Amino acid sequence: MRIAPWQKRFYVDRRTSHFRYRPRNMSGTAMHSGTALPRSGDASVTLSVDRTRLSYDRTLMSWIRTATSLITFGFSIYKFFQLEAERAAASTSRLLGPREFAIAMIAIGLISLSLATFEHKRDLRALQREYPYAHVPRSIARLIAGMISILGVIAFVGAIFRQ
């Protein structure tokens, strides 16, 4: 026997891709105007909150990997061309030199990492507001993002102030 979509107790909101709860009245039919939340002991809702939180952490870790690559690549370009400039006389007729390109790469990495961290924090707060009974622990991915940001700022300052 198939269950019609309006009879399901839990569903995925297509607009926000969040797992939602459809409350029921005493006769067993879905209430469309109710705002009741599921019980805190409901295992499927607890597991869905955990899956969503872990998904947010995976997304932030992907952004950390991307930002680390940009920062590392930018700093490597800077160091490589710094060594090359010591060996040969550098041409000053370039519009965008290797130092400026390296600084831009490091800056893009830092900006993308900070935006991803703020988005991760916003998403976890929204999850906590939607399911206030659920325990949403602090994210270790955010701590790692902070440490990578510190290293990126050091590389950025080193590339700017070192000629």
Can you describe what's shown?
The model is unreliable at 26-36 (pLDDT under 50). It contains 3 helices and 2 strands. A two-stranded antiparallel sheet has the order 1-2. The longest helix is centred in the middle third of the chain and has 45 residues, at 43-87. It is mainly alpha-helical and 163 residues long. The chain starts with 9 loop residues before the first strand and ends with a helix.
Question: What attributes characterize this protein structure?
Answer:
163 residues, mainly alpha, 2 domains, two-stranded antiparallel sheet, 2 strands
Write the layout of secondary structure elements.
Elements: E1 10-12, E2 19-21, H1 43-87, H2 98-130, H3 140-161
Helix pairs in contact: 1-2, 1-3, 2-3
Q: What would a concise description of this structure say?
A:
With 163 residues, the chain is mainly alpha-helical. It is built from 3 helices and 2 strands.
SS-based class = mainly alpha
Count of domain modules: 2
Sheet bearing the most strands, described? 2 strands, antiparallel
Q: Main sheet: which strands, in order across?
A: 1-2
Number of helices in the DSSP assignment: 3
User: Can you tell me the overall shape?
Assistant: elongated
Q: Determine the fraction of residues in helical runs and give it as a percent range.
A: 55-70%
Q: What's the alpha carbon Rg, rounded to whole Å?
A: 24 Å
What order do the SSEs take from the amino end to the carboxyl end, as H and E? EEHHH
- Portion of residues in beta strands equals under 5%
Low-confidence stretches: 26-36
Count of DSSP E strands? 2
- Average predicted local confidence, pLDDT: 79
